[in-house]
Amino acid sequence: MTELKGFQKQYLKGLAHHMKPVVIIGQHGVTPPLLASIEEALHAHELIKVRFNDFKEKESKDALCLEIIEKSKAVLVGSIGHTITLYRPCRITEKRKIRIPKNPVKAPPA
């Protein structure tokens, strides 16, 4: 997946704002079943939130986040507190649920 531009991340953050975390990372960290859950959620929704329950230190969360991104081939949209938002478009273009804007939307003049 290519890197998202700032306005594209803002668009995805807006879509994810009301969402609840669908995957929760517990004391065992990143395990094969956890990665399978993330894979399944990304395939079904394209945009998901992941919550860290037992990892309160920023360094450990950052390391786990990088591992998840690398293994899932998703893009980090944002990170707030103990929750990260991930995006990965469906591989089949016709089945994509989220259409990311190619150009920033200009606000009308006041």
TrEMBL record:
Domain CRM: 2-99
SMART domains: CRS1_YhbY
Keyword flag Methyltransferase: no
This protein's record includes keyword RNA-binding: yes
InterPro entries: RNA-binding_CRM, RNA-binding_domain, RNA-binding_YhbY, YhbY-like_sf
Swiss-Prot/TrEMBL keywords: RNA-binding
MF GO annotations: RNA binding
Full protein name: Ribosome assembly RNA-binding protein YhbY
Name of encoding gene: yhbY
